Amino acid sequence: MRKLLCAFVSALFLTMGFVSCQSDEEIKRQKYITEGILLYQNYCANCHQPKGQGLAALYPPIANSDYLQHKDSVICLIRYGMQGPVVVNGKTYNRVMPAQPQLSDLEVAELVTYIYNEWGKETQLTSLNTVKPQLENCRPKQ
Ligand code: HEC
Protein backbone atom coordinates (compact mmCIF):
# COMPACT_ATOMS: atom_id res chain seq x y z
CA MET A 1 0.00 0.00 0.00
CA ARG A 2 2.73 2.37 1.01
CA LYS A 3 4.77 1.34 -2.01
CA LEU A 4 1.82 1.99 -4.27
CA LEU A 5 1.28 5.40 -2.82
CA CYS A 6 4.98 6.04 -3.15
CA ALA A 7 4.96 5.07 -6.82
CA PHE A 8 1.95 7.27 -7.40
CA VAL A 9 3.53 10.26 -5.70
CA SER A 10 6.80 9.76 -7.62
CA ALA A 11 4.90 9.64 -10.91
CA LEU A 12 3.14 12.82 -9.95
CA PHE A 13 6.32 14.69 -9.11
CA LEU A 14 8.66 13.15 -11.65
CA THR A 15 7.98 15.84 -14.22
CA MET A 16 8.66 18.52 -11.66
CA GLY A 17 12.14 17.13 -11.14
CA PHE A 18 11.98 16.01 -7.57
CA VAL A 19 11.14 12.63 -6.14
CA SER A 20 11.06 12.36 -2.41
CA CYS A 21 10.38 8.70 -1.92
CA GLN A 22 11.92 6.73 0.85
CA SER A 23 14.06 3.80 -0.20
CA ASP A 24 13.00 0.25 0.66
CA GLU A 25 15.87 0.14 3.16
CA GLU A 26 14.57 3.25 4.92
CA ILE A 27 11.03 1.89 5.09
CA LYS A 28 12.40 -1.33 6.58
CA ARG A 29 14.42 0.61 9.15
CA GLN A 30 11.32 2.53 10.24
CA LYS A 31 9.41 -0.73 10.54
CA TYR A 32 12.12 -2.33 12.69
CA ILE A 33 12.17 0.74 14.94
CA THR A 34 8.39 0.72 15.36
CA GLU A 35 8.38 -2.97 16.26
CA GLY A 36 11.45 -2.45 18.43
CA ILE A 37 9.71 0.20 20.52
CA LEU A 38 6.85 -2.19 21.31
CA LEU A 39 9.21 -5.03 22.14
CA TYR A 40 11.27 -2.74 24.34
CA GLN A 41 8.18 -1.66 26.25
CA ASN A 42 7.13 -5.28 26.76
CA TYR A 43 10.43 -6.95 27.56
CA CYS A 44 12.93 -4.38 28.75
CA ALA A 45 11.37 -1.20 30.11
CA ASN A 46 10.45 -2.75 33.48
CA CYS A 47 14.06 -2.83 34.40
CA HIS A 48 15.85 -0.38 32.11
CA GLN A 49 12.95 2.12 32.28
CA PRO A 50 10.94 3.64 29.42
CA LYS A 51 13.59 6.16 28.43
CA GLY A 52 16.42 3.70 28.83
CA GLN A 53 17.83 5.60 31.78
CA GLY A 54 18.22 2.55 34.02
CA LEU A 55 17.26 2.34 37.67
CA ALA A 56 19.57 3.42 40.45
CA ALA A 57 22.31 0.88 41.15
CA LEU A 58 20.07 -2.00 40.10
CA TYR A 59 19.68 -1.73 36.34
CA PRO A 60 22.23 -0.06 34.08
CA PRO A 61 21.15 2.57 31.53
CA ILE A 62 20.93 1.72 27.85
CA ALA A 63 20.54 5.34 26.76
CA ASN A 64 24.05 6.62 26.01
CA SER A 65 25.56 3.48 27.51
CA ASP A 66 29.21 3.01 26.58
CA TYR A 67 28.50 -0.72 26.55
CA LEU A 68 26.69 -0.23 23.23
CA GLN A 69 30.04 -0.27 21.45
CA HIS A 70 29.97 -4.06 21.96
CA LYS A 71 27.12 -4.76 19.59
CA ASP A 72 27.91 -8.48 19.31
CA SER A 73 27.52 -8.81 23.07
CA VAL A 74 24.32 -6.78 23.10
CA ILE A 75 22.77 -9.07 20.48
CA CYS A 76 23.65 -12.08 22.63
CA LEU A 77 22.56 -10.77 26.02
CA ILE A 78 19.08 -9.84 24.76
CA ARG A 79 18.37 -13.53 24.04
CA TYR A 80 20.63 -15.28 26.56
CA GLY A 81 20.77 -12.83 29.48
CA MET A 82 23.80 -11.58 31.35
CA GLN A 83 25.42 -11.87 34.76
CA GLY A 84 28.59 -10.97 36.61
CA PRO A 85 29.97 -7.49 37.19
CA VAL A 86 29.74 -5.03 34.31
CA VAL A 87 30.88 -1.40 34.16
CA VAL A 88 28.53 0.97 32.35
CA ASN A 89 29.55 4.61 32.03
CA GLY A 90 31.99 4.19 34.90
CA LYS A 91 29.52 2.59 37.30
CA THR A 92 29.63 -1.07 38.30
CA TYR A 93 26.49 -3.19 38.17
CA ASN A 94 26.26 -6.79 39.22
CA ARG A 95 22.87 -8.44 38.98
CA VAL A 96 21.28 -11.04 36.80
CA MET A 97 19.57 -10.06 33.59
CA PRO A 98 17.30 -13.02 32.75
CA ALA A 99 17.46 -14.75 29.37
CA GLN A 100 14.51 -14.21 27.04
CA PRO A 101 14.63 -17.28 24.81
CA GLN A 102 11.16 -16.58 23.45
CA LEU A 103 12.48 -13.64 21.40
CA SER A 104 12.88 -14.64 17.74
CA ASP A 105 15.92 -13.68 15.65
CA LEU A 106 13.80 -11.03 13.93
CA GLU A 107 12.64 -9.60 17.25
CA VAL A 108 16.24 -9.36 18.43
CA ALA A 109 17.12 -7.51 15.19
CA GLU A 110 14.22 -5.11 15.73
CA LEU A 111 15.23 -4.47 19.33
CA VAL A 112 18.86 -3.87 18.40
CA THR A 113 17.82 -1.54 15.57
CA TYR A 114 15.61 0.45 17.92
CA ILE A 115 18.21 0.69 20.67
CA TYR A 116 21.03 1.78 18.35
CA ASN A 117 18.89 4.31 16.47
CA GLU A 118 17.44 5.75 19.65
CA TRP A 119 20.49 5.65 21.89
CA GLY A 120 23.52 4.57 19.86
CA LYS A 121 23.68 7.37 17.28
CA GLU A 122 23.03 4.97 14.39
CA THR A 123 20.80 5.71 11.44
CA GLN A 124 20.74 2.27 9.89
CA LEU A 125 19.06 -1.00 10.61
CA THR A 126 20.73 -4.03 12.12
CA SER A 127 19.63 -6.76 9.75
CA LEU A 128 18.56 -10.31 10.36
CA ASN A 129 21.70 -11.33 8.44
CA THR A 130 23.86 -9.71 11.14
CA VAL A 131 21.89 -11.00 14.08
CA LYS A 132 21.32 -14.61 13.03
CA PRO A 133 24.95 -15.84 12.86
CA GLN A 134 25.85 -13.94 16.01
CA LEU A 135 23.03 -15.58 17.99
CA GLU A 136 24.26 -18.91 16.67
CA ASN A 137 27.85 -18.09 17.81
CA CYS A 138 26.86 -17.33 21.37
CA ARG A 139 24.19 -19.99 21.83
CA PRO A 140 25.06 -21.70 25.11
CA LYS A 141 26.44 -25.20 24.45
CA GLN A 142 24.51 -27.98 26.16
C1 HEC B 1 14.78 -8.22 35.06
C2 HEC B 1 15.44 -6.98 34.68
C3 HEC B 1 15.94 -6.84 33.25
C4 HEC B 1 15.23 -6.97 32.09
C5 HEC B 1 13.76 -7.35 31.91
C6 HEC B 1 16.16 -6.65 31.00
N1 HEC B 1 17.39 -6.33 31.52
FE1 HEC B 1 19.00 -5.73 30.47
N2 HEC B 1 20.14 -5.80 32.14
C7 HEC B 1 19.66 -6.06 33.42
C8 HEC B 1 20.78 -6.13 34.33
C9 HEC B 1 20.70 -6.40 35.82
C10 HEC B 1 21.94 -5.91 33.56
C11 HEC B 1 23.41 -5.96 34.08
C12 HEC B 1 23.82 -7.42 34.18
C13 HEC B 1 25.10 -7.64 34.95
O1 HEC B 1 25.22 -7.08 36.04
O2 HEC B 1 25.96 -8.41 34.47
C14 HEC B 1 21.50 -5.68 32.20
C15 HEC B 1 22.34 -5.35 31.14
C16 HEC B 1 21.91 -4.95 29.89
C17 HEC B 1 22.76 -4.38 28.85
C18 HEC B 1 24.26 -4.12 28.91
C19 HEC B 1 24.62 -2.99 29.83
C20 HEC B 1 24.04 -1.66 29.41
O3 HEC B 1 23.22 -1.14 30.18
O4 HEC B 1 24.34 -1.15 28.32
C21 HEC B 1 21.93 -4.13 27.79
C22 HEC B 1 22.34 -3.50 26.45
C23 HEC B 1 20.61 -4.58 28.14
N3 HEC B 1 20.64 -5.08 29.43
C24 HEC B 1 19.53 -4.54 27.29
C25 HEC B 1 18.28 -5.12 27.60
C26 HEC B 1 17.20 -5.27 26.65
C27 HEC B 1 17.25 -4.80 25.21
C28 HEC B 1 16.20 -5.88 27.30
C29 HEC B 1 14.85 -6.32 26.75
C30 HEC B 1 14.90 -7.33 25.69
C31 HEC B 1 16.61 -6.09 28.67
N4 HEC B 1 17.88 -5.63 28.81
C32 HEC B 1 15.82 -6.64 29.66
C33 HEC B 1 18.34 -6.23 33.76
C34 HEC B 1 17.30 -6.45 32.88
Automatic annotation (TrEMBL):
Pfam families: Cytochrome_CBB3. InterPro entries: Cyt_c-like_dom (IPR009056), Cyt_c-like_dom_sf (IPR036909), Cytochrome_c-type_DH (IPR051459). The keyword Magnesium does not apply. Residues 31-119 form the Cytochrome c domain. Keywords: Heme, Iron, Metal-binding, Signal. Residues 1-21 form the signal peptide. One of its GO terms (molecular function) is electron transfer activity. This is Mono/diheme cytochrome c family protein. The lineage of its organism: Bacteria, Pseudomonadati, Bacteroidota, Cytophagia, Cytophagales.
